[in-house]
């Protein structure tokens, strides 16, 4: 029997469909690669932090810069047992690319989730526990902000890095770290400390809008900080004596 063109095309389509179905089944049956970390979606649109952080910066920062850290940590941990990114922080200084790539992934995932649109930030509240610790450690919220802004100035963190407010076991402490280091890493400071808030002072975090005006960026950043989340972070680290988990 001769097969017509239409029948032949149908047969080819059927074969292709069956082949794709089989391939899809194989992919679905294959276990996910260990440490297949991913950039977590933002909980808000790119433009939601305007006018304090601009949409183009957020898109480039989140999709490209954070994406690069994720690609590199996946490459560095390929074939190793899957663990939360938090678990890699303590010994990151002795783990080669985990220090920068893993630190970059943890730090950015932490950063996205402590920020909210300005109208929500304005209504977020400092918990009594956090207020008490701020007062005992710095004197007041305003004094804490002033010390934090000084610690984030170009002369204090030269080049690229982060500034954190951490629980040190007794109270709160402001800590600056270079590159993608964080206070959870053994050896970065005299002892491990647990961040409850932190700001990225790499130029890619602010340059499109603020150019060389880092202090203006840092001062404006308070307008998008979610104090509810910071309060939650403090309660967690005080109770558990470990770092805050992030979406990884």
Description of the structure:
By secondary structure, the protein is mostly helical. The chain contains 9 helices and 3 strands. The chain has a 3-stranded antiparallel beta sheet, with helices on both faces. β1 and β2 (172-178) form a beta hairpin. α2 (55-76) runs antiparallel to α3 (98-113) and α5 crosses α6 (141-151). The longest helix is centred in the first third of the chain and has 25 residues, at 5-29. The radius of gyration is 23 Å and the shape is globular. The termini are far apart. Residues 1-35 have low confidence and may be disordered.
Write a concise keyword list for the protein shown above.
single chain, about 250 residues, globular
């Amino acid at each position: 029997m001769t097969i017509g063109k239409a029948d032949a095309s149908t047969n080819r389509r059927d074969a292709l469909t069956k082949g794709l179905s089989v391939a899809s089944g194989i992919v679905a049956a294959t276990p996910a690669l260990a440490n297949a970390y991913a950039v977590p979606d933002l909980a808000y649109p790119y433009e939601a932090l305007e006018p304090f952080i601009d949409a183009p910066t957020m898109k480039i920062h989140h999709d490209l810069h954070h994406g690069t850290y994720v690609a590199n940590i996946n490459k560095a941990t390929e074939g190793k047992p899957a663990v939360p990114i938090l678990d890699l922080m303590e010994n990151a200084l002795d783990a080669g690319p985990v220090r920068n790539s893993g630190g970059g992934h943890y730090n950015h995932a932490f950063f996205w989730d402590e920020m909210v649109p300005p109208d929500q930030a304005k209504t977020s509240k400092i918990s009594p526990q956090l207020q008490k610790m701020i007062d005992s450690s710095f004197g007041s919220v305003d004094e804490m902000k002033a010390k934090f802004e000084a610690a984030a100035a170009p002369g204090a963190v030269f080049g690229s890095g982060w500034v954190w407010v951490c629980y040190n076991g007794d109270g709160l402490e402001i800590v600056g770290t270079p590159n993608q280091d964080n206070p959870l890493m053994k050896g970065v400071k005299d002892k491990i400390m647990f961040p409850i808030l932190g700001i990225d002072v790499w130029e890619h975090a602010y340059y499109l809008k603020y150019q060389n005006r880092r202090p203006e960026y840092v001062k404006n950043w308070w307008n998008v900080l979610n104090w509810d989340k910071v309060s939650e972070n403090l309660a967690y680290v005080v109770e558990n004596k470990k770092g805050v988990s992030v979406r990884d």
